[in-house]
Amino acid sequence: MSQLVDSEETTPLLRDDASSDDFQDDDYKSRWRSIRVMYFTMFLSSVGFTIVITSLWPYLQKIDDSANASFLGWVVAAYSLGQMVASPIFGLWSNYRPRREPLVCSIFINLSANIYYAYAYLPKTNNKFHILMSRAFVGFGAGNVAVVRSYVAGATSLKERTSAMANMSACQALGFILGPALQACLSFIGEYGFTVKFIDLQLNMYTAPALLAAAFGLINILLVLLVLREHRVDDHGRHIRSINYTSEDRVDISEETEETMDQVAVLTSNVLFFIVMFIFAVFETIATPLSMDMFAWTRKEAVLYNGIIICGIGFESILVFLVVKVASQRIGDRPVLLAGLAIIFCGFFILLPWGNHYPKIQWADLKNNSLVSQISEATKASNNSLEPTGCPYEQTWCQYTPAIHLAQYISSDILIGVGYPACNVMSYTLYSKILGPRPQGVYMGWLTASGSGARTLGPVFVSQVYTILGPRWAFSLICSMVLGAIILLSCAYHRLIAFSVRYGRTVE
């Protein structure tokens, strides 16, 4: 064992002594080419989600007058619901068949769903339901995230894994940043654009992003078919034959064992990942309405300023991923996860309202408070193209809850932008290590499904609690949830260790 550890520390990139021959060197290069294809697949998955998100609401309104804000919520949730259903299916598939199959199938579904989205204006009726179905299928195709994570987990050693997972998360964050940027670049086409008659396609600022996502999907399929190869290594970086590896030119050095994974650690990791994703879903959902209520921003100002903030958080996340790779090597994965949760707690605790300054109330400047005057003034404001700003009087908590200051909001954004990416990458890095040498497709599918479920429930939770009870209750409950996650992690701390460490095959 000591010789093996010495070899790991003195050999570049965890190659063993046999890696000096040409076959192992080619195998090593092929392995990392394949991992980079997985990076690109993860990048495109996040681009596919965000590239239409800013134009989704106006597109809905344009093609179907009956669509309302409530239906928009279902359309946004449809992506996560589709991903939640698909993740275990694709994960199970990847356990027993070459991963090219579920990857190509899922990307093709995603590609077709984006084309479906671009043609959603064609039917004469129920166009909004076609939008809903197309987004659900885009999410279903994005269920390949489970396959991507299981591949990277199986193709990296313990020491490589945190770095590889951080790189993959950075690609995902970059996709979330570039998606809205690509949409903005395509907005020059305009709302009406032009028609390609022979395929009956209206190419405009709403359909072009979806078609660009479909083109990216085609490139992704080609990369998977031409570049991706099946690779699997043990915890020390030595190649072993995977259950879905079809060639016979590789010697299987793995040992059959009846050792089982720690199911408590697996369940704990799923719960922690659910909480992390739930919290971030709440954060991204509440940003726009909170800023409009507290700072009296107009819709245009809220979209612009929060867009800048989200881009800033995205770039901040990429820096955090780079720091996490170094920090986890020096102090371990669990302390980084614990620190990330503590930073998130501070971020939401700062958002709790305090002081004696109250938000501006819409219509508060009316001298006559009668309902008739309110309606008359509202009509007048509408006719003059003046948008009412401030906290809506229908939200009764606006009258007695102190305002959140802009400095609080910005500070919270910065802290959450540090804590969330650290928790995100550490959650499934630890999870992949806990699972051990067995194929991880199904378990990664359940982890992805738990995250998708959190992204579905988070917006529903915050929209109800925030609207009815206000930010004090909403953020207090979130702080309690984060505190619960910290306690859970502390209680299960000694069990959240790598499979090989648990059975004494290697040391942390």
From TrEMBL:
Keyword field: Membrane, Transmembrane, Transmembrane helix, Transport
GO molecular function, one term: transmembrane transporter activity
Cellular localisation: Endomembrane system
Residues of the Major facilitator superfamily (MFS) profile domain: 34-502
Topology versus the membrane: Multi-pass membrane protein
Originating organism: Seriola dumerili
Record's GO cellular component terms: endomembrane system; lysosomal membrane
Main subcellular location of this protein, as a coarse class: membrane
Spans traversing the lipid bilayer: 37-59, 71-91, 103-120, 132-152, 173-194, 206-228, 264-283, 303-324, 336-355, 473-493
Name the UniProt record assigns to this protein: Major facilitator superfamily domain containing 8
